[in-house]
């Protein structure tokens, strides 16, 4: 650091008496200096020290001046007890007074409130206030300062105390200092730095100490002894440095921690005041003898560079290590003046005034930036240059070099003939590193740490300013004091070349033949002996690595990315491809890489071209090089042909064609032109030459037309070139049906492949008639059928199936599958049968049935089971081998169909809050299902739901005995939680009811007239005659019908004929003729008898009367009572002929089953019989269901198809 006087002035009064400079301050913009000199206020221009204007207004000496932060006004305080406010135009605008002489003043940096301090009080003034608020002080006030945020005011008192006040003057903190009255606080200042986490107050007292405090009163850092009485202390505007002046007759520069850095100016009297110009390195000093000195501080650059690591000094006490490639930075706080810095590999040496500290990296990684202390040499060592090596430091002092180890022991010393101007470490093994020296006499030496004798390399005519050694150490670059660059061969000392206007030089560490030098604000890059490439540059170069140049400009180091394009093209012009590639590797643009690659390729340097094209990822050229290399390995050695391929890739087609013809490869030229769609040039190239197939040219032209979206032209060209199939594909892609038909009709019927292709496209385009025409022309009738099936044109498909029965299966199987997917199962079943696929029909239906059960669709499950049972009948009728199995399944499926049909009602009753069924119907349904569940229990049917419904309806209908039985059975089952309480409560309540059932709900057998119990262990049949009950399949009331069978020799058709014949007109006429006789016989069957006083009337039961009665009635009781098997009524032909046909219900089951015959015992009760499912219903119930649903409630046969249902 050097202090250069800019201007000096000495103030006298009229009598030439020196006037003491008590205080001074800068205008915030730094353009003016306000000085308190005698009883005047002087205003100086800081540029040249000219006095702008003296201000008069005080009668006695002016002790203090201060400027507001906004630069609009400043104030002066005097021994005459007054304060004057001045504007920036040097006009006085306000004056107020205290009771004592004014000692100090300070403007609030935020609110511009002025604090003026006298000996015994202080006042606060602001432009908004009309009066000055004054506050008493317990001790004399010598100094004051506002915090950076303007919230608090610090007062320095004569008793050594610092009083912290708020903006209204109230004391908030009191800092008691150890010196007490022996250490009056003469000056203090707050650090303006924004980097500090807390406000720091610097206190200078006349106990000759410098101390620092936080706002809380806690001391920051340690107290620094000064050795003199300080009269003033001031920070630089950014807080990095501190100025202190006083009885030592000089102004000293300190760090913000209080570390002394140096002296700014020696004076002949006390320094009463000092201040730093805002945002600059200028300092103003005021002395007791009236001297005003204005200095410029010049901070010299202390730095060191090794490859990409640059270390430099900051704020005089910190060392910053910067990685020039990654821009990483690390700071080392030395807390003392840094005098010299040296860096080498993983070592860093920092010289302080009293010691040298050696640092090392934590690791050997190239990216590591963390340093730690390795050694400390606690000696005061003076040197001009400092160099660090692996285990040594080298000190340069004028002509002498000293080598010290890290313990501070001198191991070797060299004495030179002239001053050492430049020194650099050039590497080498540990403890044997080599140093390059440049002397003032022009001599260049090389010394080794383990060798006492310097090695002379060469000598230049002038003093050396800078030098550098190439990476291979074969070339030496020297810059002399005449700014001339000289490059020598180290081995021969031969001067290779020289360049003017150079102030620094650096070899490229990655390229032996490249260096850069700077001078006259220009950067020069020179490769080999080629001319230099120049560009603008501020500063001078200190390093060159790859494409990065390290430039030092004033105090900052920057990295400049310099593309190496110019040197690369210089090598390419000389066809030096290998050297050009090496230069490109240092850093060029993608365009430069492409130029290098193409130039190398044309020069047939395939290896370099491959590397260059790989760098820019040009796969096209890499494929070309690969193909050329493969051809070369196979023995092809025609470089002309290779060059022709290269020229064609580069777009030089006419030159390539000439080389192809020269090499005798016309086909290659044709391929080039056709691939590029240059058909006219290809035609010109052919000329009258017929050796090349012109048809092939037309084909390629068609390919091109197709690719450029000219399909019609392409199709016509393909047809003319004989590529019919490609033409057909284009026509099909564009939907040109007319062209397809034209081609198909012109094609011979033997050409199946072409016709088939036309038919496929026509089929895809929906032209089914035309596609069928193509198939007919080929004789492919099966394809015609498949065509109509594919588009589901079933009418046409059925017509073709009728014409060609062998294709019936091709039509009806897809038709049946389509119907099944649409849930049209009856139609699907018929279609499967027509297709001869009964097993498929059965399998689909069975799967649907299981799905319905799993999904709790019990009405659908009942319907599907009924359909399955009818399917079983069909299979049993067609296949005798499956008869037994199918009949077993038929009975099982019929039973399950009824059970699921019934359970659907119970499930809806359990799940839904309301039901349309009467209690009697629910009672009958649940009772029917309970008896069926005694025999089998299909999947999905809940025994609990069945019994719960039955129990609930039994209680409602007063069937208490049944309800108790069912509730007892319910309690043995697992009851759902939501019903558990209801069931338990019902079981308790039923105990209070009588143990019998309402007789009107007990079922009656219409064959034997036996009243059956409500719980029948035999199931749904009579306990006496075992006659199965026939239920109405809506309300499930027992119908008054009795089943009868015909004698074995009578066929079903004959029996039907006899029954229908008995109801003819003949029978009616016979009935009319015998009417009187029957009445007479009826009267004769009663006989009257008298016995004593009593008379009796009895019916004559003689055999003659029994023979004349109804034959069915006479056979009705012909069964063995108490038997376990049902014995039906068997009728002969005579009995059948005697029956009334309207009373007979015939269930016409399909083969192999026989018909079932039932007689309505109560003809007045109308019964409807469904001829499809053979279920019987009360007619009223059936009609209501049909009106609601439109079909039979059980088999879902539509009403129109059930028109012939029988109603009795």
Automatic annotation (TrEMBL):
Domain IFT122 second beta-propeller, first and last residues per copy: 303-557
Domain (Intraflagellar transport protein 122 homolog TPR) ranges: 564-942
Keywords carried by this UniProt record: Cell projection, Cilium, Cilium biogenesis/degradation, Cytoplasm, Cytoskeleton, Developmental protein, Repeat, WD repeat
One Gene Ontology term, aspect cellular component: intraciliary transport particle A
Record-level GO BP terms: establishment of protein localization; heart development; intraciliary retrograde transport; nervous system development; non-motile cilium assembly; protein localization to cilium; regulation of smoothened signaling pathway
Subcellular location: Cytoplasm, Cytoskeleton, Cilium basal body
InterPro entries the record matches: Beta-prop_IFT122_1st (IPR056153), Beta-prop_IFT122_2nd (IPR056152), Ift122/121 (IPR039857), TPR_IFT122 (IPR057411), WD40/YVTN_repeat-like_dom_sf (IPR015943), WD40_repeat_dom_sf (IPR036322), WD40_rpt (IPR001680), Zn_ribbon_IFT122 (IPR056838)
SMART domains in alphabetical order: WD40 (SM00320)
Residues annotated as domain IFT122 zinc ribbon: 998-1042
Chain segments carrying region Disordered: 1057-1092
Source species: Penaeus vannamei (Whiteleg shrimp)
Domain IFT122 first beta-propeller: 13-194, 196-298
Protein's UniProt name: Intraflagellar transport protein 122 homolog
